[in-house]
Write a structure and sequence with these properties.
With 340 residues, this protein is of the alpha/beta class. The protein contains ten helices and 18 strands. It has two domains: 199 residues, Quinone Oxidoreductase, Chain A, domain 1 (Alpha-Beta Complex), CATH 3.90.180; 125 residues, 3-Layer(aba) Sandwich (Rossmann fold), CATH 3.40.50. β17, α10 and β18 form a beta-alpha-beta unit. Bound molecules: nicotinamide-adenine-dinucleotide and zinc ion (2 copies).
Length: 340
């Protein structure tokens, strides 16, 4: 048996004794979990606002640990390796999968959302989903941060962010920060927004070129100054409200790109001409499309630096306090990591 964090129903989270997973297939890997990051969507499962969640559920989709056992067909990793686990599980046969976009597989299942996740002492995954991290080059607990950075790489790819681009990242939460650091590693110039000054200070500290508190300054004016009146070539929206997408369409340059990360279902009010007049590409970015190797390379080389993103650490048995902290202390919290 082992301990796992289970959300039975909204606001009812418990540490429960459940059977320890076992190798059933040659591809299987059992991981002794080391660390798991708490994400907004875990909070959504906890407080009942995640419409995709089903209960009861072992939560956790940002995690990694040490391999404890491997099936007889596993060759790329071995017992004792430190790995980060990709949470995307796809069918391999649908249009999206066959055209190289398995992150939007028509039947995609996310570990920790649609199936049991990583907030447990042991987890079973497969060789395909486990990516080795060099223990000597990164803080082992940062295996939990590979997943949020993979969202950052995906958004950069979708927005074709490249050297010299002026980029606006709306929102300075963990996802905005990840997008920003990846964009910086590509040589872009990045401006960020938020409503919370401590979040903007962290963004500056972690490498943003300019930050704007939209409660204190006119974003339109600052953008105009930042781009010499041209508008932004690339905007990544990690605020994800109906209004933020409208705002992005107003601030983007002709021929620019907008990347939406939103998962909400409230509509924005957008006239068709907003797309047509400027000939903009508006794309969605979901999860990550095999970006773990690239993230690990960026982490190991120091091109991205998660130390200041990781603001809080809790023992997994204190998960309730950790979830409450994420919900109620936006001023101080960026990423909370649970240790197992
Ligand atoms: N598509 C995906 O694969 C994917 C993956 C992870 C997260 N997300 C989404 O990305 C978004 C960001 O995630 P996060 O974990 O960073 O969330 P977060 O809530 O920590 O960050 C959002 C930030 O936006 C700020 N904000 C709110 N209104 C604003 C405004 N009008 N202008 C500027 N800033 C404003 C908030 O203060 C906060 O700091 C969420 O909506 C989440 O659902 C999408
Ligand atoms: Zn997440
Ligand atoms: Zn598929």
């Amino acid at each position: 048996m082992m301990k796992a964090i289970i959300v039975n129903k909204p606001f009812e989270v418990e540490i429960k004794e459940v059977p320890k997973p076992e190798i059933n297939d040659g591809n299987d890997i059992i991981i002794k979990v080391l660390a798991g990051g708490i994400c907004g969507s875990d909070v959504g499962i906890y407080n009942g606002t995640n419409s995709l969640a089903t209960y009861p559920r072992i939560i956790g989709h940002e995690f990694g640990g040490i391999i404890e056992a491997v099936g007889d067909r596993v060759t790329n990793v071995k017992v004792g390796d430190l790995v980060a686990v990709d949470n995307v599980n796809s069918c391999g046969r649908c249009y999206a999968c066959l055209t190289g976009h398995h992150n939007v597989c028509s039947t995609v299942e996310v570990t920790g959302v649609h199936r049991d996740g990583g907030f447990a002492e042991y987890v079973k995954t497969t060789e395909e989903n486990a990516y080795k991290v060099n223990k000597d080059h990164i803080n082992p607990f940062h295996v939990a941060l590979v997943e949020p950075y993979s969202i950052g790489v995906e958004a950069n790819e979708r927005g074709r962010i490249t050297k010299g681009d002026k980029v606006l990242v709306m929102g300075s939460g963990p996802i905005g920060i990840a997008v920003m650091q990846v964009a910086k590693s590509r040589g872009a110039e990045v401006m960020m927004t938020d409503l919370v000054n401590t979040r903007l200070e962290r963004a500056m500290d972690m490498g943003a070129d300019k930050v704007v508190n939209v409660l204190e300054e006119s974003l339109t004016d600052v953008v105009s100054e930042f781009t010499n009146g041209e508008g932004l070539p690339v905007i990544v929206d990690s605020v994800c409200t109906p209004r933020s997408l409208e705002e992005a369409l107003e601030l983007v340059s002709p021929a620019g790109r907008i990347v939406s990360l939103g998962t909400g279902n409230k509509p924005s009010a957008i006239p068709q001409v907003a797309f047509t007049k400027k000939g903009v590409d508006v794309v969605g970015s979901r999860l990550n499309n095999y970006r773990f190797p690239h993230v690990i390379e960026l982490l190991e080389s120091g091109a991205i630096t998660p130390e200041k993103m990781h603001t809080h650490t809790f023992e997994f048995t204190d998960v309730k306090e950790a979830l409450e902290e994420v919900m109620n202390n936006k001023d101080a919290v960026c990423k909370v990591v649970l240790t197992f």
